[in-house]
Amino acid sequence: MKTTADWPKIIAEKDKKISELEALVKFYEAQFRLNQHRRFGASSEKTEYDQPDIFNEIEATADAKEPERSLTEIASHYRKRKRLVNDRLPEDLPIETVEHDLGAEEQICPDCNGSLHVMGSDIRRELVIIPAQVKIREHVTKTYTCRECEKTTDGSAPVPIIKASAPAPVIKGSFASPEAIAHIICQKFVMAVPLYSQEKD
Fold this sequence. Notes:
single chain
């Protein structure tokens, strides 16, 4: 238990702690002001120290009396772009050929009115992407019964009813087909397209 004799020591320790905290606060205030000045204050690249002129060696050592060298013009040339190794279309895609030909009335020589013949052709390939097609698949399951049995039965025996088989839905009571579910999963988890964006599309 502390007594009155201990109070002077306690007060001295508190005063020392307060002095240390005040000095620390002043240090942080100075650091804050310096940081603010660096961020928002006017900056200048000038310095009070003389720096060596290290980037103007040619100007400092050049002879002003020496005449300038004459310029030589080099003829420009063009270099044909080389097709990269990976700059090609996949080989396993089907090819749709669209021919652009002259009409029958245009296949006549403008000089002698003779018939023109094909001397060559240019081929340009392009990649065609068809967007996803959406349609409704309607499953019609037919049910059959026997007309003869309907005529001869007296009601004691049931008339045979045969129903065609149909694939069960992936999700019972849903409009989703296997293709639609696969497309949604691919867009969501492979292409990172959110569900609300898919719904909007």
